[in-house]
Every structure is written in structure tokens, then in C-alpha cells.
Amino acid sequence: MKRIRLPLVPGVVVEFADRELALKKVEEWARGGTAAVQLVFGPEGCGKTAWLRQSAEVLRELGFDVIYVNPLERDYLAYIDLKEVARRLAEAAAEHSGIAEVKLADLAIQLAKYAIKKRKRKMAVLADDVFQAIGVDKAASYVKWMLNIIEYPPGEYENIVAVVATSEGVTRREIGRHRWASPRPMWNMAREGFKQLYEQIPGEKPPFEEAWRLTGGNPKLLGELYGAKWDVDKVLKELADKKRINAFVATLGEEERELLRRALDDPDVLFTREGIPLMDRLVDMNLIVDTLPERDPWFWAGEPPPKRDVELGIGRRVAWQTPLHREAVRRALEST
């Protein structure tokens, strides 16, 4: 399998590392197809985009025609011998009218249907973070539209793989109201895979164990730490400002703050009747991931996290997206 190369930060290009179980899941889908849309969700920056782009290579090698779109980045791949498909994707990506993102999201499905009409028997459509482009209110209808390709195809086909990835907890909750998608959580990289990535970082860097404890295996945060010259305080301040964590903590009553303090050590305390309203707000802010399934790999897109890891902030049902997310909240609580 060809390993793709991706920019981690400006000036640093790395080879796709690890995710063996996640790629095997793609091969499994390629053999049997996807009866429902596979909704892959997980922490921001955990590597969903890199995995989708590597998956496009895997599917191409398995004989699939592949359409991949990332509307927010105006990025696409068209592994297909229909010039019309590549042309229309390129035109949409080049739009300057402010609607390029929506066009790319829509074209992923439109062109997959067009390809099946043209007797493309093995088709894969991979949509990356489309919900931020089209809006949360349209998330469920988009998934239903994608599902229609599987259930009501415009022509005969041998196999279809349909995958949509998101970091948005509120979007996953909206889609979960229906049975149009199979949720497949993806976690941050496992220790050995993360080490492969860490070793590709040039120059002086902190010991691997320190990088692991800070990021919990999150490749995006590893890149941000590198870009900040390994200044943890800078990364924490940027994270707090981006998420408006201090303002969020200031809105909480004393009981909620005490519950949040307890969740720093044990995030599962949020998975209770009194904790769920606060948990939902933390999910909407992309600070935690909730309702984690059993750690059986069948339920996951890739290697699941441990059942519990106090050091990394992982509980059985609820987990902080990364240790740095948890630390940013801790500091906000201490300063308020």
C-alpha cells in the first residue's frame, strides 16, 4: 500500500503513520460495502482527514473509483477516469463567491450518482467535515441523501462505500436521531503509531513521554506544539481563546463548577442525570467526547482507547479530547 505524505505544519511533511486497524476497517467495507453511511467522529485533530485521504489510496488500489471532498479546505481527490467529475470538482474548488464549500459538499454525492449511471460498479464517496460547510441544520438531510445512493442507486453496482467524518459533537447528536448512519468513533493515535509520527518531527523536541502526556496521541496538537517551539503555555492560551473556555466557565453556577472540577479527574461523573446538561455543553464546544461505546474494535474506526486512563482523561463513557483540553479547563476554573 502506498503511504501518502501530508503536511503536519508549514514546512514539515510527514508520512502517514499507523492506523492499521482503521485501514483494515476500510478494506472490510470494500469487501462487503456499507449498508448505511459510516459516520466517523472523534476528537478534533485526531487524524480523520489523514485517514480518509489514505483510505482513498487504499480503495483505489482495491479497484474503486473514489471521490473525496474536504469543503472547508476546498480540497478534493477524484480517482476516476471520468473527466467530467474532475472538471466539476476543480471548478467548484476554484469558486470565489463564498459558496465553494457548499458546492463541493453537494458535488461529492451528485458526481457519485453520475459515476454509477456511467456504469462505475465499485464506487466510494468520502466526505470530510462537510457539516461545517453546509450547516448543522442540514447534517441529517445530507446523510440521508448519501444513503439514497446505497438504497436507491441510479444504476447497477457491485459495491459502494460511503463515509462522512466530523468533529462536531452536536452534529453527531442530530444525525443520531435517525437510523441513516452507523456511528464509528475514531480516537487519537495509539502510542506506537504516535511515536512513528513523533520521530518524523525535525530538530530538538521534548522526550516522547512528555509529548504523549500532553497530547494523548493527537497529531494536530503535536504539530501546534512544534509550531509554538514546544511552549505549552502558548498552546494552552490559544486553545482557551479559540474555545472561549474562560467565558464558558464564568457562566457556570457553583454546583456546575464543582461537577466540572470532579470531571477533571473522572469524566464519567458527567454521564449522570445531573451531569448530562453540562456534558452536552462540553461536547458542543468540542472539549469532550461522550457516549463512548465498548472497546471492541468492531464498534470503532480504528484502535479504541483504553477503558480508563486517568492520566490522559479517558473514562469508560466520557473522555476529554486531549490532556491539553482538560488542562485548559483546569486553568480556567482556577482563575475564575
TrEMBL record:
InterPro entries (alphabetical): ATPase_dom, P-loop_NTPase
Domain of life assignment: Archaea
Residue ranges occupied by any ATPase domain in the UniProt entry: 16-225
SUPFAM superfamilies named in the record: P-loop containing nucleoside triphosphate hydrolases (SSF52540)
Pfam families registered for this protein in UniProt: ATPase_2
Molecular-function GO terms, alphabetical: ATP binding
Gene3D superfamilies, per database record: P-loop containing nucleotide triphosphate hydrolases (3.40.50.300)
Protein's name according to its UniProt entry: AAA family ATPase
Organism expressing this protein natively: Pyrobaculum aerophilum
